[in-house]
Amino acid sequence: MKMIVAIIRPIGINPLKEALCAANIKGMTISEVRGFGRQLGKKEIFRGVEYLVEYVPNLQVEILVKDSDVERVVDLILKATKTGETGDGKIFIHPVDDVVRIRTGERGEGAI
């Protein structure tokens, strides 16, 4: 199993959810996050004055999948969220040793 963690622009969350549901990928966790990448923030204009937003607001999406679904889910994330502009985000893929469904105690892929 793998945990796919994607840092995306907030505007991409609805297209991503629709794409995952259409592909029968069930469940994701969303967290509001702030950070910066190579661009070190972004410039905004407020009342005619330009200023630097040091920590850009984004969403962190976590999706636990079977190994066989990793590439398909990564492709869905790319297609649903990519704008081609700086700051589109990143996707991280982590191995997961086990998962336990708290309600039933079920373990492994069946608990996804």
UniProtKB/TrEMBL annotation:
It comes from Ilyobacter polytropus (strain ATCC 51220 / DSM 2926 / LMG 16218 / CuHBu1). SMART domains: P-II. GO terms for cellular component: cytosol. The modification O-UMP-tyrosine is found at Y51. Belongs to the P(II) protein family. This is Nitrogen regulatory protein P-II. Coiled coil: none annotated. GO terms for molecular function: ATP binding; enzyme regulator activity. One of its GO terms (biological process) is regulation of nitrogen utilization. Keywords: Phosphoprotein. Pfam families: P-II. The keyword Repressor does not apply. InterPro entries: N-reg_PII, N-reg_PII-like_a/b, N-reg_PII/ATP_PRibTrfase_C, N-reg_PII_CS.
